[in-house]
Amino acid sequence: MKQISVMLADDHALFRAGLRALLEEMHDVKVVAETENGLDLIKIAREKKPDVTIVDITMPELNGLDALPKLKAAVPETNVIMLSMHANEQYVMQTLKSGASGYMVKTAATTELESAVRAVARGETFLSPAISRSVIDSCLGRNKVQPRTRQLLTPRQREILQLIAEGNTSKQIAAMLNLSFKTVETHRAQLMDRLDIHDVAGLVRCAMRLGLIAPDR
Question: Is the model more confident about 135 or about 139?
Answer without folding.
Answer: 135
